[in-house]
């Protein structure tokens, strides 16, 4: 995979812009990269769901060209909000990436997919599917506000958010 950008450089190259930087929490919650795409970004689509990945599955089955799904899973460590089948759907539907404030599973399979994936951890337990979740709501975690329509950029250095597009991907 080629690296399209480096988040450090985005911050350095745009000092005049209001760019938020996700801050790792003091309790040890750090985002890890799970997908084959090591740098990814795009226009944000948000979903808030707790231990129910119904909306994640629905959204990633739609056209995601130029987009990144940001999921607030409440930092739950009890179940995964995305596995290999949903991640494969995201690739098929041209999503650039998924950022999950929660867990993923099937990490070996996800590591082979041309998709950016950042999550807090992995766990083999699947989530519930009761159709619960809110789409296109503002999310707040890691001292950053994620709003649908804004832009997010992620790599192994971290995650940054801007109201404006910073780079063409």
TrEMBL record:
Which UniProt keywords are present, listed alphabetically? Lyase, Magnesium, Metal-binding
Please list the GO terms describing molecular function: 4-hydroxy-4-methyl-2-oxoglutarate aldolase activity; metal ion binding; oxaloacetate decarboxylase activity; ribonuclease inhibitor activity
- The entry's Mg(2+)-binding residues are 106
Q: Which domain of life is it from?
A: Bacteria
Stretches assigned to coiled coil: none
Give GO BP annotations, semicolon-separated: regulation of RNA metabolic process
> Is Signal tagged as a keyword?
no
Pfam families per the UniProt record, alphabetical: RraA-like
Q: List the cofactors.
A: a divalent metal cation; Mg(2+)
So where does substrate get bound?
A: 83-86, 105
Q: Identify the EC number(s).
A: 4.1.1.112, 4.1.3.17
Q: Which family does it belong to?
A: Belongs to the class II aldolase/RraA-like family.
Record note on quaternary structure: Homotrimer.
Under PANTHER family, the record lists: 4-HYDROXY-4-METHYL-2-OXOGLUTARATE ALDOLASE 3-RELATED (PTHR33254)
According to UniProt, the name of this protein is 4-hydroxy-4-methyl-2-oxoglutarate aldolase
What is the originating organism of this protein?
A: Acinetobacter chinensis
